[in-house]
Amino acid sequence: MNRLFQRIFGEDWKQKAVWGVVLLGWNIRARVSRRFFYLKAMELVISSRCTLRCRYCANLMPCYKQPHDFETAQLLQDIEDLLQVVSRINVISVIGGEPLLHDGLAVILKRLVEEKRIREVLIVSNGTLLPSAELLPVLKHRKILLRVSNYYPHSKKLNELLDVCREEGVRCEVVSPVWHDPGFSSTPETDPGELQRRFQNCFAQCREFLDGEFHLCPPSANGVQVGLVPCDQSSCVDIRTDLRKSGADAVRKKMRALLNVSSIRACAYCRNNLDGKSHVVASGGNQIPPGWYLNPSSLKVEKITEES
Length: 308
Prior knowledge:
Helix content: 25-40%
Strand content: 15-25%
Structural class: alpha/beta
Radius of gyration: 24 Å
Strand order of the largest sheet: 5-4-3-2-1-7-8-9
Order of helices and strands: HHEHEHEHEHEEHEEHEHHE
Largest sheet: 8 strands, mixed
Shape: globular
Number of strands: 10
């Protein structure tokens, strides 16, 4: 056998064979790494309806003129589309608005918890509602954590909700959130250095999946939805459309590129960190607490256009 290989491949056939195996391994690893795409955390927005109307809502819920639930069937399809592109998600947060308002929440959660590539599912609620009889059994799943924001005194059902969670064996935690004022300007910033500074110092870099689009932060995703930020394909990935048009590999490539940008379009309009400091609004003290209400008459949304 040794002489046969020598005749065919030469005296150094063993060295060639070793390098062949090494190159094959590198090739396989490169192909796998191109297709393996990991997200540490991501928010899935299922509704723009909310029981509160908070002035400093990072998801801009008060700016929606016609708040609505996204259709359950479309959300399930969006999840399937996402899973064609993403190899693993460590934590996915189901948010609104107020997610407990969505009639299809139980169905959505069932799909998420049965997916082995998703490690944990958070539901972010504001303590104003109790889970329905249909939802309670799903909330008991070991992957699910109900995270309740304490917006005292507006979280009127908080204590009752905690009692229900204890009685039913639902994992639950209460947080007193620290809020930032994103603010928006109708005059866009154009200096590249300033845009990069805003992006690097931004508090809101939380990946958000909204209406089939993958954004780097809530102000970007919701800002586009309500017209505060111009739609810019370089600042998001339209997974719903691009997957059918270009395929999963192309969408993964776009998402990787987006995760490595130095700024996005929303940075030009978002006023957070203008002075190099976060405009923090936290619970308690002399600062403005989360849950500070807006009166409908006081809410003014100036739509941004490409020309502005």
